[in-house]
UniProtKB/TrEMBL annotation:
<dbReference type="InterPro" id="IPR029058">
    <property type="entry name" value="AB_hydrolase_fold"/>
</dbReference>
<keyword id="KW-0378">Hydrolase</keyword>
<dbReference type="Pfam" id="PF12146">
    <property type="entry name" value="Hydrolase_4"/>
</dbReference>
<dbReference type="GO" id="GO:0016787">
    <property type="term" value="F:hydrolase activity"/>
</dbReference>
<dbReference type="InterPro" id="IPR022742">
    <property type="entry name" value="Hydrolase_4"/>
</dbReference>
<feature type="domain" description="Serine aminopeptidase S33">
    <location>
        <begin position="79"/>
        <end position="190"/>
    </location>
</feature>
<protein>
    <submittedName>
        <fullName>Alpha/beta hydrolase</fullName>
    </submittedName>
</protein>
<dbReference type="InterPro" id="IPR052920">
    <property type="entry name" value="DNA-binding_regulatory"/>
</dbReference>
Length: 300
């Protein structure tokens, strides 16, 4: 094989390797999530067993089903849609559904594309997920009518999804967004992972190759997964939450998003907990932050 052929083969191999790691990221075993959230958590298990639930299927505009659960505990048209993080399932949102019940909200928990029992071939870290979130919001709006109050709460990739949704679609019916440990830029996040893990995969040159193959294979580029670019287009109140000890998605990303967002907005930095553990490790402070935020946005 010629030198040119060897270089081309290496280029293609690197492109496929990098985009495979993103598009087909290894997910947690659903049984592990079920054990963590239900079997070994008596409080959540008892709550989830007693609350009225309705399993629904929502059609994604991309041609696959989005599986969701409506939890109706409040006799009012107030709902929070919970968008979970990468590798998780909707069961990881139960803790937040319980929390928001205290404030008079019902819950819609759903599986992101390629997660849980929802369809979808790839994970896109918010690019296609924001379109699915739009479908879930539209379902709630059409079901409960224009009087419904709808909020969105997202964690990690789910938080980025919520911000991308809010900053992309005009005239959205949602009343607020709560973004728990979002990344501001997926490219920057990948670069941080490379630095933290001294990974040979995510060098600057490798990211350029990944970008080319990502557009070819999955229809978007890394720059299109950047909440920081659209957060100033969001017209509803936003609460950013991040733990100071998060070393996976650094807290400065929420600070940067907060600075770029329009008023009304709030930023809460919590002292304890690694990535996506803000509520588990700071229950009282997290609850107080939600209560204060909702006091200003909740409709009578």
């Amino acid at each position: 094989m010629s030198s040119l052929g060897i270089l081309f083969s290496a280029f293609v191999s690197i492109g496929y390797l990098l985009t495979n790691r993103m598009m087909f990221i290894k997910k947690k075993d659903p049984s592990t999530i079920y054990e963590r959230e239900i079997l070994l958590n008596e409080e959540q298990r008892k709550w989830y067993e007693r609350v009225p639930k309705k399993e629904i299927q929502i059609d994604s505009m991309h041609g696959y089903p989005i599986q969701a659960t409506v939890i109706q505990t409040i006799d009012a048209p107030r709902y929070v849609i919970f968008s979970h993080g990468v590798t998780e399932t909707r069961l990881s949102s139960i803790q937040f559904a319980m929390l928001f019940e205290q404030f008079g909200y019902n819950a819609v928990i759903y599986d992101q594309r390629r997660h849980g029992t929802s369809g979808g071939k790839t994970t896109s870290f918010g690019y296609y997920e924001k379109v699915d979130l739009k479908a879930v919001v539209q379902y709630v709006e059409q079901w409960r009518g224009p009087e419904a109050e709808i909020g969105v709460h997202g964690v990690s990739m789910g938080a980025a999804t919520a911000l991308l949704y809010g900053g992309t679609y005009e005239n959205t019916p949602i009343s607020f967004i709560i973004a728990d440990c979002p990344f501001s830029s997926f490219s920057e996040q990948l670069a941080h992972i490379a630095s933290a893990e001294t990974s040979p995969y995510w060098t600057e040159q490798a990211l350029r190759v990944a970008n080319l193959f990502l557009r070819w294979r999955d229809g978007y580029t890394l720059s299109e997964v950047s909440p920081i670019k659209v957060v100033d287009q969001i017209k509803v109140p936003i609460l950013f939450i991040h733990t100071l000890k998060d070393t996976f998605i650094l807290p400065h990303m929420s600070e940067d998003l907060y600075e770029a967002a329009n008023e009304p907005k709030q930023l809460v930095l919590l002292p304890e907990g690694k990535h996506a553990l803000g509520y588990r490790k700071n229950r009282e402070a997290y609850r107080d932050a939600i209560a204060d935020f909702l006091q200003h946005v909740k409709k009578d």
